[in-house]
Amino acid sequence: MKHRVKRIVGHKVIRTINHIVFGVILSTFMLISMLGLAACSNDTRSTSAEADTKNEASQEDRKNESSQEAEQQSNTEKNVSNNSDKDEIFEGNFTIGISQFAQHGSLDNCREGFLLGLAEQGFVEGENLTIDYQNAGAEMAVASQIAENFVGKSYDMIMAVATPAAMHAYNAAMDKDIPVIYSAVSDPVAAELAQPNGESVGNITGTSDALPVEAQLKMIREIMPDAETIGILYTTSEANSEATVKIYEELAPKYDFELVTSGIATSADIPLATDNILTKVDCLSNLTDNTVVESLPTILDKAFAANIPVFGSEVEQVDLGCLASEGVDYITLGKKTGYLAAQVLRGEKTANELNFETISESFLYVNSATAEKLGVEIPQSMADRALENFSEIGVLK
């Protein structure tokens, strides 16, 4: 019994100790677990807070970046705009004297085209460009005075419209450092403004409005298949007209035409010369003769009275009442002249380094009202090909 009691007591003690140890271990484990959960919770909250902070910072950064990008884009647009303005207007101030020999549509168009061409190249009247425009009224002495006046004022450039104005400008500026740019000069070589190879004879260059004579003769033959004689009025003192008359004389026989010419000295000779030549021809073919073109209304009135067609040399003459024309576009010619002038003003080239230029393409213009008045039929193929067909007669408006 004593031994059994001792074993029982011993077992109880052992069980009690085991319970205590197990309880301590369990408590320790639970405490560790609780501490771990708390730590994880803190870490999670910390991580979440850090993420929120990072997100807020990222969003703020994106806002700042977007703001910076918008500002940069705005500045870029401003710079582009400013650069565009700088590109459009060439730096400096320039004065050009324009000497136009006569007042008529083709020369006016030439001057207008010249200013357009300059503007496209950064030289704009009223901004960096001053224009002194003078018209000689088809008077040689006045053209000379205008040129001398421009030279005396030491302008940056002289622009001369038509052969007589160009010749006087070149003579006046020959010993000066003033470039001369011309336009509407039919034959620069004949006018001694260029060498036969196209090179300049001095500080001068420009553009030529050489008439497409052969195209004109073809057109006249197509409209008037039975015509035999063509009459031409021209000014004997205009070198461009004399040169063109020679081309007509060479080519007219090729198209079975006889040529009748009448030279005049001044516009005062026009009425009598017109009356005389109209009795000898089937039609008149006009040149870009400045004196004759300026008197075109008088010529047309007399030609209508005699029922004789007058063929023009450019669009403005057809608008006035000429039957048709194969001619150059004088706005385009003027713009080409402006491009040449811009090269000189920018200092890229001197005038004597630039060969004169021409326009090779011609355009057909017809006046259906004139055809109806004269009883002339314009072939449908030509009417369809015409760049412009006028339905009114300018001199009769």
- The chain-level mean pLDDT equals 84
Which CATH first-tier class of the largest domain would you pick? Alpha Beta
Uncertain ranges: 1-87
The CATH topology of the largest domain comes to Rossmann fold
Q: Provide a count of the helices.
A: 13
Q: Give the H and E element order.
A: HEHEHEHEEHEHEHEHHEHEHEEHHE
Largest sheet: number of strands, sense, barrel closure: 6 strands, parallel
Descriptive overview:
The structure is a single chain. The protein is about 55% helix and about 15% strand. The chain is α/β, with parallel strands linked by helices and about 400 residues long. The chain has two domains: about 65-210 and about 330-360, Response regulator (Rossmann fold, 3-Layer(aba) Sandwich), CATH 3.40.50; about 215-325 and about 365-395, Response regulator (Rossmann fold), CATH 3.40.50.2300. Strand 6 (about 230-235), helix 6 and strand 7 form a beta-alpha-beta unit. Helix 3 (about 140-150) runs parallel beside helix 4 and helix 7 (about 270-275) runs parallel beside helix 9. It starts with a helix and ends in a 7-residue tail after the last strand. Mean pLDDT is about 85; it is low at about 1-85.
